[in-house]
UniProtKB/TrEMBL annotation:
Gene3D superfamilies: 1.10.1660.10, Antibiotic binding domain of TipA-like multidrug resistance regulators. It comes from Streptomyces coacervatus. The keyword Protein biosynthesis does not apply. Residues 84-111 form a coiled coil. The keyword Transcription applies. This is MerR family transcriptional regulator. It comes from the Bacteria. Residues 9-78 form the HTH merR-type domain. CDD domains: HTH_TipAL-Mta.
């Protein structure tokens, strides 16, 4: 910056304009000894030199990163620190800040991508995980049926955080459970038998772990719905004909076992 006026340094008003700070801030920095103008005009007014502006730039950098003024003063007045040390420290701090902001941006993007049912997958990923069973197919009805409940809100919150890998793991657990339950039905096991009740309990815990807490009374209602609602009945009977009714009875027996 050139001094066309022939005056020494810059006035407090000029510096405030350059740096985008208030005159009051500069006066405060002067009062506490953080940034004392090092020159005087012919009339005796304090003026800021180029070195003062460099120091102000350092002050504002550390302030932007949230350092308290006393820590800023300690950093700048450290006799062991040369200008390169400051630049290195600033670079490290900026790199850490960038990383933190990138993580925050990624989290926001993740949330923005969440679908109506909280499933944040592309159509391709969703098909890869769920095949032709689109989980949004019943979204509207689910919202009508349970939309006002805390359980529904909790399932939305949890589902919005799941990645494709999470959904694959959840699906794999359902598939594994279904195979074991189908084998149980094929073997002629009774719904009130221990093996069937254990699988019913596993079913309840799966929903509790991934979606929302399912008390036994609610699980009983689900069991009844798996038979009365054709879509649920078709889902479970596709694992093995008659599985929906068997599961309903096993859920009933398991609930009685735990609540009686």
């Amino acid at each position: 910056m050139s001094h066309s006026t022939g005056q020494v340094g810059y006035s407090v008003g000029q510096v405030a304009g350059f740096a985008g700070v208030t005159v009051r801030t500069l006066h405060h920095y002067d009062d506490i000894g953080l940034l004392v103008p090092s020159e005087r005009s012919h009339a005796g007014h304090r003026r800021y030199s180029d070195a003062d502006l460099d120091r102000l730039q350092q002050i504002l950098f550390y302030r932007e990163l949230g350092f308290p003024l006393d820590e800023v003063a300690a950093l700048l007045d450290d006799p062991a620190a040369d200008p390169r040390a400051h630049l290195r420290r600033q670079h490290e701090l900026l790199t850490a800040r960038i990383e933190k902001l990138q993580k925050m941006a990624a989290a926001v993007e993740h949330a923005m991508e969440a679908r109506k049912m909280g499933i944040n997958l592309t159509p391709e990923e969703r098909f890869e995980v769920f095949g032709d069973k689109d989980p949004e197919e019943y979204a509207e009805e689910a919202e009508q049926r349970w939309g006002g409940t805390e359980a529904y809100a909790e399932s939305q919150r949890r589902a919005a955080t799941y990645t494709k890998e999470d959904w694959k793991r959840i699906q794999a657990e359902v598939g594994d459970w279904g195979e074991r339950y189908a084998a149980l039905v094929a073997a002629g096991a009774q719904p009130s038998g221990e093996a069937a009740m254990d699988l019913a309990e596993e079913h309840r815990q799966h929903i509790s772990r991934y979606y929302f807490e399912v008390p036994y009374e609610m699980h009983r209602c689900f069991g009844a719905m798996y038979v009365s609602d054709e879509r649920f009945k078709a889902f479970y009977d596709a694992m093995r004909p008659g599985l929906a009714e068997h599961l309903r009875d096993a859920i009933e027996a398991n609930a009685s076992r735990h609540t009686s």
